[in-house]
Amino acid sequence: MYRLMLKDLRLHKRFVVGFGIAYVIYMAIFHSRANNPGAVSIFGAFLYAIIPLLIFTREDKFKAAAFNLSLPVTRKEFLQARYVLGWLVMLVLYAGTSLLTIAVPGTKLGLSAIFQVKLVLLVIFFMAVVFGLLMPLVVAFGFAGMIVFLVFIQVLGIVSILLANLFQPAIRTAIQGMGAFLGSVQSGLGPVGSAIALLVALLLFSYGSFRLSLYLYQRKDV
Amino acid sequence: MSEAVDNALEVRALVKDYGDFRLKNVTFSLPRGYIMGLIGPNGAGKTTVIKLILNLLHRDEGNVRIFGLDNRASEVEVKSRIGFVHDAPVFYEHLTLRKLKDTVAPFYGSWDETAFHRLIEEFDLPLGKKFSRLSRGMKMKFALALALSHRADLLILDEPTSGLDPVFRRELLTKLSAFIQDEGKSVLFSTHITSDLERIADFITFIHDGEVVFSSPRDEILEKWAVVKGGPDLLAEENRSLFRGIRRREFVVQALTADGAEARRRLGKDTLVEKASLEDIMFFLTRGNGHA
Q1: Which residues of A touch B75 (CB under 8 A)?
Q2: A7 and B CB contact within 8 Å
Q3: Which CATH class is domain B3-218?
């Protein structure tokens, strides 16, 4: 797995370093000026998840899938390396952005504001969901799969706004019900228990995403 | 030693369905220490067969064994022993040859750095140059240098000579002949340039429209198959069963037979029976439908 990760990093070194640094600086400045660190963190998490996927879609650009799969590795090993590398890139971007945010002159956010447990969990939650949903699409359809997902998210947003206007009371009741359920789970498990439960749920979700990606990859023709 | 282990490659009842094209029960085997040519017109299914052997495509039915090992169950071991040259080189084009080598080499425990540099020198390849800036011939040479540098036991080459000048084609064929001098090394080589195979192949597998037409030793094929030339009476009903492909002009008929000796015996001295070349065989089997 290590060789495969190193291969991806070596092949896309300039892209990873150049794009990563630019992105971390941009997000840190954006973050440091924000009045609502939660909203910015969620937006950031979404983008942290996109960047490793952009690396993987570069395989399409160079039409290098046949080259990669001619090497003596299994498709399972290949995917394992990509999931691990994806998480490493996301966490490095998140840590880099957070630390730089504190260092930006005139920042509104201090260490304690950025590294609140709830906020960290929220970022991890969004990274896991976006990365976990997108990976099978990228595996099956490459760059096109990612674009379709992003368009789908946009359409979903528009539909949600329309539905919210049409069925406001029903949606409000549903959201309140969900909130009450999560609140009762949280109070039942306590803060530490809830955090552990969330991480376990995300781990299972990521594993499910990996299994689905593997199923698709093993049937993919290159 | 079992039959499975004596063969470098065994393909059994391989099926791949694309909807508009179907590979139908493709079966052949390549004994160790030999070169097999995989021939057929464009679109016959040669690349599909090669990609199925390498597990780049998902097969619908059948199985592939390499050195007695299933190509999917023992994928890593099998691929470690294969050197592969694609029809169109598929490397990351923005990298230099040195970086590409540094990327590939760690995956092979048997990588031979000395052999690689010897080949680079022999092929006169510039390691500092980007892959995208090489000519087609040089790209092919580089792919071959990589394939030969990890001491592969089986070389699989998909149309390596198409688009190459005759000088490099001859060099490549010499290289392949030298490769199998080391006992136990084998080569599977797809092409539609049949003259290359007449020079070096020990076995020929002919694929047409997704089906194996024959898979036999080259000498047997060139000995048995023949082109028969004569007048329109050649097409008499009693002769028809002899022919596998017919080409008819106004006063001349040419036909391909898989049994030259029988054709000579049955048709007598008035009919010309000549040994068929691989090109003749390919032409008649794909285009010889009885019309000029």
Answers
A1: 72-74
A2: yes
A3: alpha beta
